[in-house]
Specification:
- The chain has no helices and 14 strands.
- By secondary structure, it is mainly β.
- The chain is globular, with a radius of gyration of 17 Å.
């Protein structure tokens, strides 16, 4: 390791968890779920926080900045991808509708300078299937983001790994997730990688 002693990214009260790092080719964006109480809602976590870190280990943001608030503890950080300049942070927000809860897939863009670019957008609001937010992974190549996640679409008997493509500006290419895998058994924990041109998707499968 480059450091004999780990350096701190956040020194705050309460839990900081679900940490992931993504490089834009110059610096790293490290993002996590923060359970630090929000100033206006002391009983709920603050939300998704992030800092930028150089390859030499210098933390560029003295204080973590808020990427997305979690007003009632309903937000889960999923993954981050970069187009080589800016970052996109993907998250799930639980939306209560009567006695039912759906999990909306959302995204927030972060500039290389550490500021939010525009307002967060909703990418997918499922009414057709169960969406399991903890299974979501993302990658970028050739002007597109590919998201992969677990689902039980209504047209399939068994669960499946599905995907959605987005433009660089986060316009949705696939309005309905397309099936990547899933005919029999259990499909879990998808992952996606890229060589800069194509994507490679893997998953855990047992029958």
């Amino acid at each position: 390791p480059s450091e004999s002693v780990p350096f701190a990214l956040s020194d705050d009260i309460a839990d900081q968890y679900a940490v992931r790092a993504c490089c834009n080719g110059t610096n790293w964006l490290v993002t996590w779920n923060s359970y630090t109480p929000a100033p206006d809602h002391p009983y709920y976590p603050r939300g998704l926080e992030a800092v930028r870190v150089t390859p030499s280990g210098t933390v560029l943001d003295e204080t973590p900045f808020l990427v997305y608030p979690s007003p009632v503890g309903s937000v889960v950080y999923l993954d981050t991808a970069s187009d080589g300049t800016d970052w996109v942070v993907f998250l799930s927000e639980a939306i209560q509708s009567g006695m039912n809860t759906r999990y909306d897939l959302k995204a927030a863009r972060v500039s290389s300078g550490g500021s939010l670019l525009g307002s967060p957008v909703t990418l997918f609001s499922p009414s057709c299937c169960y969406f399991f937010p903890l299974g979501t992974r993302a990658a970028y190549a050739n002007g597109q983001y590919l998201l992969v996640f677990e689902a039980i679409p209504s047209s399939y008997v068994n669960d499946a790994i599905v995907g959605m493509r987005l433009t660089q500006g986060l316009s949705v290419i696939d309005s309905y997730p397309f099936q990547i895998a899933g005919t029999d058994g259990v499909f879990r924990e998808p992952t996606v990688a890229t060589d800069g041109t194509d994507f490679l998707v893997g998953w855990y499968h047992y029958t």
